């Protein structure tokens, strides 16, 4: 796992089928949960992040290695 740490409010981007998507970190997930009907297998050892997509306004979850910090 990459040693990437993100905090609530960080602006991030990730690869999507239409190029790069952008959003804001809403929370660090350290437990198994669901985001928009998809199971997120997060744990304290393998956290994921809930992100609000800038374009759609929908929440998504991503592993830290899929994200990169962006300037606002």
Automatic annotation (TrEMBL):
Protein name in UniProt: Hypervirulence associated protein TUDOR domain-containing protein
Organism: Micromonospora pallida
Region (Disordered): 1-21, 36-72
Biased amino acid composition, Basic and acidic residues: 1-11, 47-72
Positions of the Hypervirulence associated protein TUDOR domain: 9-67
Superkingdom assignment: Bacteria
InterPro entries the UniProt entry points to: Hva1_TUDOR (IPR021331)
Pfam family, one: Hva1_TUDOR
């Amino acid at each position: 796992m990459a040693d990437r740490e993100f905090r609530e409010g960080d602006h991030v981007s990730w690869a999507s089928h239409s190029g790069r998507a952008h959003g804001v970190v809403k929370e660090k997930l350290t437990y198994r949960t669901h985001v928009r009907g998809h199971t997120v297998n997060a744990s304290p050892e393998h956290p994921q992040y809930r992100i609000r997509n800038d374009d759609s306004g929908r929440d998504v979850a991503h592993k830290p290695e899929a994200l990169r910090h962006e300037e606002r």
